[in-house]
Fold these 2 entries.
Entry 1:
Amino acid sequence: MAKEKKMVEQITSMEEDFAQWYTDVVLKADLIDYTSVKGCMVIKPAGYALWERIQQEVDRRFKETGVENVYLPVFIPEGLLQKEKDHVEGFAPEVAWVTHGGLNPLQERLCVRPTSETLFCDFYKNEVESYRDLPKVYNQWCSVVRWEKETRPFLRSREFLWQEGHTAHATAEEAEERTVQMLNVYANFCEEVLAIPVIKGQKSEKEKFAGAEATYTIEALMHDGKALQSGTSHNFGDGFAKAFGIQYTSKDNKLEYVHQTSWGLSTRIIGAIIMVHGDDSGLVLPPKIAPCQVMIVPVMQKKEGVLEKAAELKDKLSAYRVKVDDSDKNPGWKFAEQEMRGIPLRVEIGPRDIEANKALVVRRDTGEKIEVSLDEIDTRIGELLDTIQKDMYEKALKHREENTHVAKNWDEFLDIINNKQGFIKAMWCGETECEEAIKEETSATTRCMPFVQENLGDVCVHCGKPAHKMMYFGRAY
Amino acid sequence: MAKEKKMVEQITSMEEDFAQWYTDVVLKADLIDYTSVKGCMVIKPAGYALWERIQQEVDRRFKETGVENVYLPVFIPEGLLQKEKDHVEGFAPEVAWVTHGGLNPLQERLCVRPTSETLFCDFYKNEVESYRDLPKVYNQWCSVVRWEKETRPFLRSREFLWQEGHTAHATAEEAEERTVQMLNVYANFCEEVLAIPVIKGQKSEKEKFAGAEATYTIEALMHDGKALQSGTSHNFGDGFAKAFGIQYTSKDNKLEYVHQTSWGLSTRIIGAIIMVHGDDSGLVLPPKIAPCQVMIVPVMQKKEGVLEKAAELKDKLSAYRVKVDDSDKNPGWKFAEQEMRGIPLRVEIGPRDIEANKALVVRRDTGEKIEVSLDEIDTRIGELLDTIQKDMYEKALKHREENTHVAKNWDEFLDIINNKQGFIKAMWCGETECEEAIKEETSATTRCMPFVQENLGDVCVHCGKPAHKMMYFGRAY
């Protein structure tokens, strides 16, 4: 009991210390544990079940667009990593190097993949001969390693799980279309399933992926007003194809370079779920992603018939992901535990409820308690889950709208960054030097040039030079 | 066209050169490709789809027994690997060592996990305090690395995909029960889904897992008469618990060590599917595991109405995993291609069939051609898939029975090993020295002491000492 008590008591409030609140939730909701391997984490059953649900939903959406899954090696020979200049510069400083296999030193070092563009290029070079072999629309679910100095569970760790899609196309147009298509898959998944509204847009030259022509991103706003890059999709043009010699014979018998894309979504998105929806009682999971949607808690479960009724109720609710907590903890602890774990609905049922042919249903997101007749509980639970999903999205959207500000000049920008929180929309000149100065002065970074532009003026908010693009700025994870 | 032609022509016959036949099938059925990373392979869409089906089937069976999935780091610090003496001796010679993170040398080397017993122990040490925390029944799906000198696709590669289950229990009995339970999950999966009959039994002291008290195995017989270890389940007793200090407080408030198990099944099983069921036309997939069960091939597809009818048929067969091959290859090539890929049923439909309201259904396993009325094709396809599944199992079982021999003395043993192929059942003394001598003289190894024992005498087939156990011997992959 001592252990359970701690779980509920020790959580820091969001207002007091958001970073500590995050760490508390991640640990107390049993999502992860630290390990002896510095910067790496154990993803525990509650955390991994969430990732499995994410995988199922995302993988299904991928396959509907024609994606096929493959698996490429965990290692990249040093020579292969070096083939594309910008790419190696971006990744070499943060990879883990394997230098020995068994008892012998290797002739060539291998890095543990930080991302697999180079391996896919090496593969496509042999796979693609004719226009008939195109497009290749492959994806892999795997772990990648990046030797980060400072780590935080889900948000930044030395190893993380993700999917990385890599495609090859005959034309630049088709590659661009696929880049945007996959960004839309991510955006729809986030909004429809995770109830997280996102801004779709393009990264600046400075922030784009190492080796890409253009990087598109979805950006979400966390509860503390900081932004989180939640998924990216890159158009490589034919840069990698030229570096690796990936050519095909076209219909009119010419040798052409392929055009490539890549796109990724990682366990980082679990950090977004926590920081968008969580509250001072812990995690709050949107019903569509919750591994368990409904927890039935028998009250006075030792009384005759209570556990039987709970089991019967579980069967009745089999259209949903439902469990019965019949452990020997007392109901109060069970309630707190399930709140911590973010289960969308709790159904309390005790002897009096049974007598009155009803149950008490409690919403995790609002705490609202609703008496429901057992005759109609099946339909009502379905309606409530839909309502919660919708309400959680609306709440997150409202939070983002209330925390998105327009800065027409640098004074306004400074006022917002110093006294408010959230996104700042402003016109920007597009120059890296100016972007770096803004970051230096305010620690705000360019998040994205949204696909849906607004005209807020014609000069850069910082340097006053002509500006044609509206940029979202923000402090970010 | 040139490329497709090669695919079908170049396959070596099984009788001529089984090893070359295997390599041909693996490549021509588009399961894998070689890579620039020596000893590692690309698992291509057809191969990975097979692994995804295996994962689904196995994972569902796991979860029915209460298994929860987790994810632990890809790295093991050298000090952690060394904690259990037998274990480190078994694995240290074949691991890949990471010595640098980014630009800096590491203070302690990390190996890329060859298996994760040590990480799970390190994790359980913190997770388990009281008997209430037990059992822990966790599993992870991941890749592991073993620095093999000679590699073959699926059978032995430097990196492979697998699941590894790791459990901790309060009592030795419970651990033993779980060890056997998981072996049975593997055996049932192999027999029911993969149509591969297996022998369940115990490994010798020499062949057991490094650090285990007992290793149980399922052994299958390949078409060429060699055995393949197809899944293993280990009982660790409290050996690892003592090395890592994993203790819990029992109900009567005593400190006790936990008892542990681990069990794994890998992409190696794909090698078994190929070598048990394949033939000179390529892969033959059991319907229950085939990613595509039925391929509809339109004949004279340019004629009006043919493609429409094929699409209609696909809808009608939506209870199965069905595709239409409407590519511009000619039907002959399509037939050969689908035979190579092992698709259980082919449905041919052309203008004449449509007129006669029928289709020609062709079984991959027997080549049998069956005319089926379109009115009853849905039911007939279901029946045929069931029949194929059953027939493939029966055929594999018959092959194993015909290639399982009893040796009552050493002359018989030598006669079988030199003139026949397959399993040899014989009484064995149980001593490692004797086992090594048998291997030296015949290259046959101990496969397992089957759970179902037969009494074939009372002395060892090789050394003549008293023997109480019947052992399966065989040459093995």
Note: Residues 1-6 of chain A have pLDDT under 50 and may be disordered.
Entry 2:
Amino acid sequence: MTGTLTTAQITADDLEALARGAAVLGTGGGGDPYIGRLLAAQALREHGPVTLVAPSDLPDDAQVFPVAMMGAPTVMVEKTPSVERIGATVAELARHLGVTPTHIACIEAGGVNSTFPLVAAAQLGLPVVDGDGMGRAFPELQMVLQTLAGIGCTPMSIADEKGNVGVLQTVDNRSAEALARSLTLTMGCSAIISNYVMTGVQAPASLVAGTLSLCTRIGSRVAQVRAEHGDAVGAVAAELGGRVLHSGKVTDVARRTTTGFARGTAVVSGGAGELVLEFQNEHLVARRDGTVEVTTPDLIIVLDTDSGEPVTTEALRFGHRVSVLAAPADERWHSPDGIALVGPRYFGYDTDPVRFDAREAR
Amino acid sequence: MTGTLTTAQITADDLEALARGAAVLGTGGGGDPYIGRLLAAQALREHGPVTLVAPSDLPDDAQVFPVAMMGAPTVMVEKTPSVERIGATVAELARHLGVTPTHIACIEAGGVNSTFPLVAAAQLGLPVVDGDGMGRAFPELQMVLQTLAGIGCTPMSIADEKGNVGVLQTVDNRSAEALARSLTLTMGCSAIISNYVMTGVQAPASLVAGTLSLCTRIGSRVAQVRAEHGDAVGAVAAELGGRVLHSGKVTDVARRTTTGFARGTAVVSGGAGELVLEFQNEHLVARRDGTVEVTTPDLIIVLDTDSGEPVTTEALRFGHRVSVLAAPADERWHSPDGIALVGPRYFGYDTDPVRFDAREAR
């Protein structure tokens, strides 16, 4: 792809741009892109490029297997799974289902989980679907458009880097989250999962199309605009149909780690007052002077003001000069069921959802 | 069986004696026998009696599926699984393995887990093996003679009463314990498991033979001797080749629940001074005046002095008049590998194992 999108293949050379763009859509979560990119580069060099297929081009009888990393990406750096182990996690689920996977997919857009599936695709010699189940990153397994479409998270496989593997079949997608989360914690906070298996009929209706292309385009634009000493932050906003909410310095960051998630607040001070970000892995609420400006499910993105590089919630530091962008989420997230699944109240914030409005004046 | 052991069938009428004897071998743990007995009675009335097969009578190509309840038996009372769900947990593992179960077995001797497998056996119409994997109760999955014999705990199935089910495949039996334990906690502290599948060749070498017969015999003797106003406690000691260490009143019980286990100490005061029991679900160490008299793996059993009924560590109360028995464990537990797996140091007690000596004078 390398930014031009004229080919339908992803090579090792595309990974830098792809991972950067994915971290933008990761909205502060989704993991540091470094480790996913490293593994994908190894797999693509070893097994060759991966073909990209649009959801609408899938044959009806396609068997699409999403693959993801569950847990804390920081831990994954120390417990890197082998390329083979990632493919084996897909194979284990395929064996359980008695079907042959034809395509690999991403379940979320995020630094790790947009590149991680490429490892399985390369190793298994399968194409990857150009789309994902969220259009952004969210922290829990049931928070995907597949849940809204009635597609089960299970049967799912879950494995660690040592060779322990489980297959779960649950009564609903939230139970899958609970059981897989407890296994992930026992596996040392890092697990490989494959779930939400879809046919070629189901996939187009329950994926956000074009995510990998979009990630690559965003990542390439940032590099290009930066090389031209242009406004990288503005370029990202333009690609996403979004807007810069605020630019300034991080003047406060408060974090607490509860039940495996990094929760906290960050204050960005600047000319237009203070913007307070509330996050739980991902940035979920942006307030200014006590007024909520944007909430989940819309995207709240923090970029380094100078470089345009995405900043994860884990990397936010006092004194960091950042710009905060907002951009619209996939329309399906704004349905009543979508809001029940990923709206601010689900995360414990006492506010109704506030949609991003691109036209709003500042 | 009903105490005479002339038939090789277990009927609903045998369950009272069986469950009582199993709670004796449960050495304070293994769960309150009531719920297992209730479920087994329902299954045996509905599906008819279950045939008992000696391990040595198993055909070589037998596929023996142990079944057990994992977690806190007190919780199980509130979340009773259906008879069908227990059979389905065996069927799920059988499906995964691609084999047809021919026999059901007990993985431990204990109030719940000696009767629980009868539910699966009755429902699936399979005979049950007269034996178990411990000859007593222990708290963790890897603590079975199968581990010493090199038999894997996994593939194992694990299910809750709602219909959530998992199949685990682990690199060793201790990892199976860790992962299944975390699932059990998330399932609400109570799960149905099937594991340690054995062939008819493997089973005789890795089971303690005759456990269900022994449990029934002990349970019947207690009822019989009590009816004759005899010494029920002495009768139990005689059946087990054991000895009464101490009789007296419980004068102190200290409990703390850590990582899912009920740990603590109990002091039994009487004519011959004080006997201190240290327990973790099961009674594991008995000390008198600072000297260790008996430790795990040998059996330390607490009975109600008047009735001869077994008393679980959960039911121990201040003022309770009890007798403490010791009895020898299966010889294989005293091997170096056995001691490493279930000796006092594994449980965190700073003492070498002290074997029970039936000849020792008091």
Note: DSSP finds eleven helices and 18 strands in chain A.
